[in-house]
Structures are given as C-alpha cells and as structure tokens.
C-alpha cells in the first residue's frame, strides 16, 4: 500500500511537472507567435487578455482586412508570404500542442490505471483488515475466557492452599496425639506393672492370711484349754472377767 501510494505520488508529481513545463513552453511559443505577428503587422492591435485562439482568429481577420486595404502596396506579396509562414508556424504549434495533449492524455490514462490498481489493492487490503479484525475479536474473546479460567484456577489454588494448611494442622495435631498416646501407653504399662506387683503382694498376703486362718482353730483350742486351767486356779468370777478380756 505504501509503495503504491509512493509510486502514485511520484507519477502524479511527474505528470504535474511535465504538464507545467509543456504549458510554460506553449505559453512561451504563443507569446513568440504574437510578437512575430505583431512585428509583421504593427498596425494590427488586439487586446492582450484574449485567449490565444481568439487572438489568432481576430488577428487573422484584421490582417486580411489590412492586406485588402493595402493591396496596391509593393509589400503586399511579402506580407502575404510572411502571413503564410506565420500560419504554418501556427499549424506546427497546434500539432505540437496536440502531441503534448496526447502525451498528457496517455500519462493520465496510466495514472488512472494505476489509480484503479491502487483502489483494487485497497479493496483487497480492506477485506484482509476486516478479516484480521474478526480474528482479533475472536482472540480477544478467547483471552477473556482464558482470563476467567485463570481466575477460577486461582480460586481453586487458594482453596487447595487452605486445605493444605488444614491438612498440615491436622497432621500436627495427629502427631501430638500420637505422642500423647505413646505417653499414655507408657503410663498404662507402668500402671499395669504396678498392678501386677500389687496383685502379687495381695496374693502373698492372701496366702499368709489363709495360713493364719488355718492355724486359728488350733490357737482357739489352745486358748480354750488355757482358760479352763486358769478358771480352776483363780475362781469363777475372775475366770469370767479374764475370759472376757482374753476374748476381746
């Protein structure tokens, strides 16, 4: 697009420059033609603000009128020859102008074809730009969807981090509970050992108690025999009193 625009501008500048140069050259030739005809017919005067074609037509009529009036003069033939030469020069100038117009028209045709080519390229690029804009819009929608997905994943990551912290806290509590359980197991073992020792002692005491219980009838029998002997010696009253005391 930039290259086409640059080429178009360059050609337009060249066309403008060529047209300007041709116009200047044409104006210079027209001025020379007027000056030459004015020298040939100094008595023929026309306004200078007329267009060149109008001025030439008017000058031709006035020159012919002047020649008719001066037909008896000796210089008529020379003047007619000069007028003929001026007309031939005018024809040559017209042919050159036509040539310049043809070149200018051809250049304008090239410029128009180039302009059409530029417009076609612009149309193609416009279609491509519209397609690119559609793709860009789709990409923008995809980006928005991805951003929403990223936000959702961030929230999930936060939840996972929270669960991770809770799990670490629970693991720490479980570790503490395991330590306490180990402590309780040790204490239970100690208590169990003490209980076993106590049970052993109780068993020994029970054995001794059973032994004492087994010896008790013999002791009671010996005690009763002793009481009878004492009763015989001391008397009935003292025996009863002593018997109460011994029983106690």
TrEMBL record:
<dbReference type="InterPro" id="IPR024854">
    <property type="entry name" value="Kinectin"/>
</dbReference>
<keyword id="KW-0175">Coiled coil</keyword>
<dbReference type="GO" id="GO:0007018">
    <property type="term" value="P:microtubule-based movement"/>
</dbReference>
<dbReference type="GO" id="GO:0019894">
    <property type="term" value="F:kinesin binding"/>
</dbReference>
<feature type="coiled-coil region">
    <location>
        <begin position="69"/>
        <end position="208"/>
    </location>
</feature>
<protein>
    <submittedName>
        <fullName>KTN1 protein</fullName>
    </submittedName>
</protein>
């Amino acid at each position: 697009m930039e290259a086409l625009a640059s080429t178009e501008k360059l050609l337009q500048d060249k066309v403008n420059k060529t047209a300007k140069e041709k116009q200047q050259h044409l104006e210079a030739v027209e001025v020379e033609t007027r000056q030459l005809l004015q020298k040939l017919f100094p008595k023929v005067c026309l306004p200078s603000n007329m267009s060149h074609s109008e001025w030439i037509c008017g000058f031709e009529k006035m020159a012919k009128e002047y020649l008719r009036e001066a037909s008896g003069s000796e210089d008529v033939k020379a003047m007619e020859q000069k007028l003929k030469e001026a007309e031939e020069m005018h024809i040559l100038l017209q042919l050159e102008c036509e040539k310049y117009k043809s070149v200018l028209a051809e250049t304008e045709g090239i410029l128009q074809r180039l302009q059409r080519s530029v417009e076609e390229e612009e149309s193609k690029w416009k279609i491509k730009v519209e397609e690119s804009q559609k793709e860009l819009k789709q990409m923008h929608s995809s980006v928005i969807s991805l951003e929403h997905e990223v936000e959702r994943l961030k929230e999930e990551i936060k939840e996972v981090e929270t669960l991770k912290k809770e799990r670490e806290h629970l693991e720490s509590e479980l570790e503490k509970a395991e330590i306490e359980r180990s402590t309780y197991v040790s204490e239970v073992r100690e208590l169990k050992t003490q209980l076993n020792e106590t049970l052993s002692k109780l068993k020994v005491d029970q054995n001794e108690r059973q032994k004492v219980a087994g010896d008790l009838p013999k002791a009671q029998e010996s005690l009763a025999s002793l009481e009878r002997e004492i009763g015989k010696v001391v008397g009935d009253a003292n025996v009863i009193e002593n018997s109460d005391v011994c029983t106690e």
